[in-house]
Amino acid sequence: MQRINRDFVDFSTQVNVWREQTFDASAGQTSFTLSTSYPVNRNMIEVHLNGDKQRKDIDYSEFDEKTIKFTEGLRAGDVVNFRWQVPFSEIMISYPDIRIEEAKKVANVMKSQTFDVSGGQTVFKLPTPYEPGTHSIKVFVNGVKQRSGVDFTETDNETITMGEELKGTDRVEIEWLAPSGQFLLGKVDIADAPDESVPQSKIKGLSAKVSELENKSDDNLDKIGILQNSKDSKEINILYPPAPLVAAKADNTDQTSIIQAIVSTGKNIFIPFDTYKIIGTVNITTPGQIIYSFGATINSSASNVNVFNILGAHNAVITGLSFISDFSGRSSAAINILSSNKVIIEKNFFQNYIGGGVIVRGTSKRCKIINNVFDKVSFAPTTTYGDDYGSIALGSGTSLNTVQGNHIFNAQHGGISMGDSHKNNIIGNVIECDKTSDRSMGIYTTGASSENVISDNTIYTAYAEGIVLQSTTSVTAKGNVVTNNRIKNCGFVGISLSGQTGFPIEGFVVSNNSIVSDETGTVQTDHGIYVNGAKSCVINNNNIKGTIGGIRGTGSECSRLTISGNNINGVTGDGITVVGSFNTITGNNVDGSTAKGIRLANATKNVVTGNSVSNNGTYGIHIESTCSKIKIGSNVYDTNTSGDLFDESNTTYYDVEHAPKKLSISGGYATVMGRKVVFADEVSAVTLTNLSDGFNGQTVIIRFKSGNVTINSTGGSNIKITSSTYLPAANETITFTCDGINWYPTRVI
């Protein structure tokens, strides 16, 4: 059999379910609500009006995750068709009954081809099959989408037939999803390869003989190994190895030594579908060696050692296997990669490991762990709390690895971990944690892991944190990026950033994440984003809803943080809490917290400007007495129960003029807290003796609109005018300046 070409099909969107819905428009209708949600602004929805494809942001807009709005009103009877992809992450949250088996099945690959049409042609044959009757094919003639069953017929699994003859000038484009079984390992490429070198790209498929036999009986499928049993073959089927090697057996006896001998040949290894017991360790040491299967099971129950060690075997591949253990061997990982580069672990299934699913160690770099499924797989080498790592673990010294498209279920410890590992991409994974385990979390870093990108992951039901980025050594962690993740119902914190005393984390970016808690009581998420000991980090454009606290900074070493553009809604504590120095809180929207909108404590030289704080249970903004030199800019306040702004520091600088507010006079006293311009408009005569809540250097302009307010400077008054009393005329304006205790007019009165 020819050597396998290792250039993978792109599976980045492999686990998607298609939804389609058609509407008959009413006159003037512009808005349409879909039956399920779609990913907004990710080019994952198609809109057709009377068969014509519509243009996003020109003909229509993606209003929200279930709503499409047309730019212009439609006519009565217009036919509107929507077709969208529901990412697997959405399925796992919205439809929890779709579990592991579905995750293993829903693996399709989109294909496309453009045809040159002969005059009168109606029949078009595809190079690979699709599944008729499953909405898995799209046909366009001259860019216009055709309707299945109306404009064309899905004749068989490789053919479509148009309802009318086409012209020689017509252009036909066909897109289709190949059946999932067709792409367990990809498409065949039987081109000869050099004798010992394996191409540096990813797997593209199996051989032509596999393709011929894949729809036949398991017995015939196994016997493809007969083609591989010569000494000159570049591949070996473990059931039919060449002499003097011994064939492996699926008889529940330990096959470690037998499979090791076959693997030690350095040839590519095919493992036919069945269950094989491995109690010891199989070492892979040949660069470029490929071990593949159509779903054979490796049973390592009762083992306490690694199943496969990849030792310095650059470009090795393991794909298509199921690894099953008994959740007992803390030193038993399914796959251990040590100082091996560009290793690919793809489309495998792992279950019941407490010693790890895939562990990357040593100096390994540019490895790819992609599109695997893990069920109840953890790496907890001891019973000590905190000794918890991921189903997928990237160890100290590793870098530039990609962990993408994996689905991790029932994680009792970490889902994905990085220990002093750098410049990795953790993208598009789904992690469902076991919330009954008090050690479960989503993505977890230790050491000084830096410059990692963690994006587009879905994490839910962690007992502890969704994402933890921390420095646990006397080295500063820098430059990690956390973006576009969806985190739901985590017990402690959605995203946690934490440095060590003297070594704050630096330059992290946390943006465009969604953190939601719809639980109450002891299981409600404590904080959306928690920051302790961080410097020069950016926290922006995140959406936080239903947690106890929104964004909380703590620790004296929090400095130069930019907290901007975040939307915090319905939290049951403070919306934003900030400590430390030189932080900027700007452009945030805090609505409906049961406590304070924005709270500053132990803060120095912070800037608070451009925020909207509304409907909060106490104050819109609260500056505690432990703060100094806070700069308050133009913020928008609305319906905050205890008041818009409460300043206890007496050192706050207000650098913009607030909108004039009515001076509320009661018992001779009126507060001017945080104000630069106020007006007095009393319908009957009152006396003003004291202005309260001022600070040294504050200036306030008072416009006396009604002429019913008498200023009295006698007794304990802190308004120091020359006369004992003064009655300003209607619409008269007086400017007062505070020295920290008393108020003085800027002109003689």
List keywords for this structure.
disordered N terminus, mainly beta, 5 helices, 6 domains, 749 residues, 4% helix, 73 strands, 15-stranded parallel beta sheet, flat
What is the fold's blueprint, element by element?
Elements: E1 16-24, E2 31-33, E3 45-49, E4 52-53, E5 60-64, E6 67-70, E7 79-87, H1 88-94, H2 100-105, E8 109-116, E9 123-125, E10 137-141, E11 144-145, E12 152-156, E13 159-162, E14 171-178, H3 208-213, H4 218-222, E15 235-237, H5 256-263, E16 268-271, E17 275-277, E18 282-284, E19 290-293, E20 297-299, E21 308-311, E22 317-319, E23 322-324, E24 335-338, E25 344-346, E26 349-353, E27 358-361, E28 368-370, E29 373-377, E30 390-394, E31 402-404, E32 407-411, E33 414-419, E34 425-427, E35 430-433, E36 441-446, E37 453-455, E38 458-460, E39 465-470, E40 481-483, E41 486-488, E42 493-498, E43 505-506, E44 509-511, E45 514-516, E46 527-532, E47 534-535, E48 538-540, E49 543-545, E50 549-554, E51 562-564, E52 567-569, E53 576-581, E54 584-586, E55 589-591, E56 598-604, E57 607-609, E58 612-614, E59 619-623, E60 631-632, E61 636-638, E62 643-647, E63 653-654, E64 661-662, E65 669-671, E66 677-680, E67 686-688, E68 690-692, E69 699-704, E70 709-712, E71 725-726, E72 732-738, E73 743-745
Parallel strand pairs: 15-16, 16-19, 17-20, 18-21, 19-22, 20-23, 21-24, 22-25, 23-26, 24-27, 25-28, 26-29, 27-30, 28-31, 29-32, 30-33, 31-34, 32-35, 33-36, 34-37, 35-38, 36-39, 37-40, 38-41, 39-42, 40-44, 41-45, 42-46, 43-47, 44-48, 45-49, 46-50, 48-51, 49-52, 50-53, 51-54, 52-55, 53-56, 54-57, 55-58, ...
Antiparallel strand pairs: 1-7, 2-6, 3-4, 3-7, 5-6, 8-14, 9-13, 10-11, 10-14, 12-13, 69-72, 70-71, 72-73
